[in-house]
## 1
Amino acid sequence: MCRMTEFPPAASYSPAVQAKAPATKLQIAAWAAWDWGGAAFNAVMTTFIFTALYLTSDAFGGADHASAVLALALSLSGVAIALLAPVAGQRTDHSGRRKLWLGINTVIVALLTASCFFVQPQESYLLFGCLAIAAGHVFFELASVNYNAMLLQISTKTSIGRISGIGWAAGYVGGIVALLIVFIALIQPDVGVFGITAENGMTYRVVALFSAAWIILFSIPVMLAIPETAPDPAMPKVGFFQSYVELWRTVRRLAKTSPHTLFFLLASAIFRDGLAAIFTFGAVIAVGTFGFKTGDVLIFAIAGNVVAAAGALSAGFFDDRFGPKSVIVVSLLGLLASGTVLLFMEGKTVFWIFGLLLCLFVGPAQSSARTFIGRLAPAGREGELYGLYATTGRAVSFLAPSLFALFITVFGAQRWGIIGILLVLLAGLLLLLPVKPPALNS
């Protein structure tokens, strides 16, 4: 039986973001291209098109019912992510197969996305569609564990914020391009490319095929440009179930040597669930509560992604200069203020103004949460720590969707689901405030 491994001795327990030869521009662009491709799942499928305009439409039982079912499916996906993500990251650290598993999980996301083509506009297909999207979230998160760990291969202690921001911005801009293609080729015309019409939901079903192809196409550069990580001979292989024992030892070691890492993991678990809920239910609320039509949603999506990209790029500058905690705190305060206005005010103009403000603040919070962990990650344990980051985030990922669904059920209207999201963001902010920020080492 293999001996259980522990962290290296204290002398070698150093942050992974160290001074090293900078990555080439080609490597940074290739890494960011994966985020560009992932926008087809996040922006097109989950946020603005497939779920907002199709899966939560009247054909599936109406916005309130379908939103609640979608929220429940996403809650279940959070449980799966919580169980699998840390072990997945740990095992790729040990095996040196970070890029391989990034590729495998990305292909699975694309296949699940393509399976949404079979979701016909009938309520009997609602559960299948919601489960396909939820399973896609699971494998997208597993892929993201390895993708986030790759950030530490191509950045230094003085550039991690900027490069992380470039990745998030690429995702937002990729979302703009993908949404424009979908809008011009399929959504806007009565007869789209190849004679596709809205009959039997075919417009939106073909969007799923397009999104799957987009994901695959833009995952290729990172597979070619970023070298595979080498296995660490000091970390012997362990069995799948033994990995959970080792994970527990890791958590105990962090509690002794780096307690503020655990504090941040807890705080970020809460507020990132709120951020995810904004993306998941934002367009759904725009349609069901503020009366947005198909064209309104797509135009807002494009404008929102432009604003979010600007926010993510600016976050990189402020992150490297002032630290990730400052960026996250300001962003969460901005989100709470904007969301509160949307809760109590009516009209499309209100949603345009404060919905775009939400987009502006979401990107910086996401990017700086990623770099916060990157600045803390010990060398050789990047994947494991990002796995814990994913797990803690998804261990409570039932929280915002469940509260969203609960407030809809209690008050009988979709608008009141906003309260659930705001409560999660506020709890995350309060937990973050006492956390000691990582040293910038600039």
## 2
Amino acid sequence: MAFADQFISSSTPGAAPNLDPRIQARDKLIVALDVPDSASALPLIDRLEDTCQWFKVGLELFIATGPSLVQTIIARGHSVFLDLKLHDIPNTVAGAVRSAASMGVRMLTVHAAGGPTMLGAAREALDAVSNPLTLLAVTVLTSMDSAEMNATGIDRTATDQVTLLARMGVAAGIRGFVCSPQEVAILRKLAGPAGVLVIPGIRPAGAPVGDQKRIATPGDALTQGASYLVVGRPITQAQEPAKAADAILREMAEAIRQLQSA
């Protein structure tokens, strides 16, 4: 399978590939709603309604709003990536996976550092649900560099640690991963063409880096083999969020055109 074909096949799980670069780009952009409450999130969703399909709900927002905001987003026809980074005993994580699936969430994160038994229990939990979601194993947070890892007692480089945890995830039946742009090519080989790679740390050229330490532009990440790109502050903190999202979508579409013509 050619790389361009692998890229096209890594679009929305279960959906037929669409060759229109703009539509593909819209299917691959996830807007991170990293805000504290519904009063902050809903106006953003309103402004991005006609531009973006996917929204990420993380710990801060989910703890503040519970399932109600997730259900509201889904009822409005959008797809939700629930980023809770589950890390607990296997039985507890399996139950949480089933609960997330029952809400209609499309993607959910678990920490690969939870170990093979926990990852296996998370994957097996999907066998009992009628509307399975895509599990994503988080390997190394994009906010961590070698110094941060060494402080936690890990002597490997970030790339070596990502590879070790991803191999463990694949062995447990996980085919979706969250990783930094620098590890996309490595994980694409491990996960195969059908693997789902979700990449945070995306910053358009000239955008502030913030607390992300391993970053890339949208075009670079897609060229490396990313399935989805997570973008937060460059969109949500822009004066005109829809215009900022549209600029990123144009950059993504251009990268997709180049891949299709390769």
## 3
Amino acid sequence: MKIAILGAGVAGLTAATLLSRAGRDITLYDQFIAPAPVGSGLVVQPVGLKVLREIGAADLALTYGAPGYRMEGFEVGRGRKILNVSYGPDGGANFGLGIHRASLFDTLLKTAQSHGVQIISSHCVTGTSFENGKRHVMFEAQPPSAPYDLVIDTLGAGSPLSPLRAKPLEYGAIWGTVDWPTSSVQKYDQLSQRYNRARNMIGILPIGTLPNDPIRKATIFWSLPVADYQTWRDAPLESWKADAVQLWPEMEPFLAQIDQHDDMTMARYSHGTLRKPYGDGIVHIGDAAHRASPQLGQGANMALLDAYALATCLDRFDLQPALAAYTKSRRLHVESYQMMSKLFTPMYQSNSQVLPFLRDWLLAPASFLPPMPSILRTLVRGSLVNPHRGLD
């Protein structure tokens, strides 16, 4: 079976490694001139780490990343603890790995290359065509590809191949990467957040180190309505930093490293799922197939889980039955986490006055009572429902 994988992101590189290891004829196309990641920090949850271990990438990822054992969040007015979720005992086997996309990309790229994956750069995908039971890939300013039995679309939220029309979310966030200040009182083994009702969500995520840079890093983020982004850029940077420090004084040594607006990158989010993420000789995985807000920290994990499920199904079934089995195996997990993301997001990122009140005075107190701590623990681990139903 000849397979083309489009996009060298988390899903693409993981799928390439798994399928190449199984003896498939793999070609991976990407538009980059030289391999490079896009983005800031993220969390690889325990279910994602299991996939990294399966492909032999976990050791390098752990060398880069920062294990986190809990998530804490406080309301800035009265200082009430709103979020208190533990992965398990400190130093234990269960944790979320905070890591920069550059470090995760380096990990997955080296793993794919060690399995002989052929990566063709400078190829911007514009479409595909299906003829005589085979699919060709079309490129900008390049001739079409040879015929493939299967094309795997991992081109993300901007995929020109995916029929998904996701609903844009009102709120996004600006993200930046800074050195971890030696003066900081924040803990390096947890995600820390502060909430100003639901209008501002501020966070500090330890992410370990970058390739060729041994200094420990952190990702900082600030939720922002998408419509307000240009207003934020037009305003003096120091005004925003002063507002943030007023809400959370411990942010000052982190924000002191932000010298210009371009040090922060705007991330926009959307919500939607392809009910049938495949067709004749093509399948969409990762953000090309389903999208949600990052509220539950599952984005990269969904990509890793998709790649593993698809590779497993292609090992067990003929092509079209394999694509149907892949879809069935991932449906409950994807839809469950999307539903919960859709439920939780407006409590932390919206203009509502009612939802943060319910969050602070009803849901937060209830979350500290059994059995809610154990439910939240499995939720953040990514294992509230079986991520690979029927494949175990």
## 4
Amino acid sequence: MSLKSKVVGGLILAGCASLYGCAGQHSESALQEASADFQKVKEDSNVLRIAPKDVIRAGESLARADRLSTYWGSGSDVVHYAYLSQRYSEIAREHTNQVLNEERAAKLELERQRLQLALRESKLLSVQQQGKWLEEQIVALATTQTDRGLVMTLGDVLFDTGEAELKNSANRVVLKIVQFLQLNPKRVVRIEGYTDSTGGKQENIKLSRDRAQAVADVLIDLGIDEKRIQVEGYGDEYPVDVNASERGRAQNRRVEIVFSDEKGQLGAAR
């Protein structure tokens, strides 16, 4: 074989090795991404409950891509099955999110109907009896009069960490607030949301406002004019307990209702 033929042959072999190396790196990257996505859906209990078939398909496709990765020249097949695995993982997440949203909406609608029923039943009491009883209840649940007005704290464990959805344990108190405002049409309220120290500052401010808005939405849904409601979010400022313990953090995840006087005048905000 001539020297020229040897040189050309060597260049061809080097080029093939380079191309294979690039293809191998691409398929390896695709395999790693698919594996990471599958690991996430596999560890999500909601995904496993709602979309088990898609999780199985994602796992089967990933296993096939992994097997093919050991064979020479199968890079395109590895990428193909890795893509299928990622797509099944994505479908599983999308299906899960859709079902969770539907479940959450159904739960909220059921609770809204229950509250409205309780509100209608409570109207069987005379307005005078109801007004006196509610006044006593509101005062008993609120703190002493402050420069902000009469302040009521809605429980100590109304929200889970990182969540803005109001727990059912708050509904009885919220119902009393609705009745009180209906019997005192000139009064207005400021709803203030607070978080524990978990999370960043901006995240906590948004979360605290979302929590206050969640309470406001219930009041509005039960017939209180939104013009009578102000909403504020203070994040993890103004804690009522230390954030070093779970009990303290639970106390700080709260919403405070500030009532105006009988003429509708609210005290200054924080």
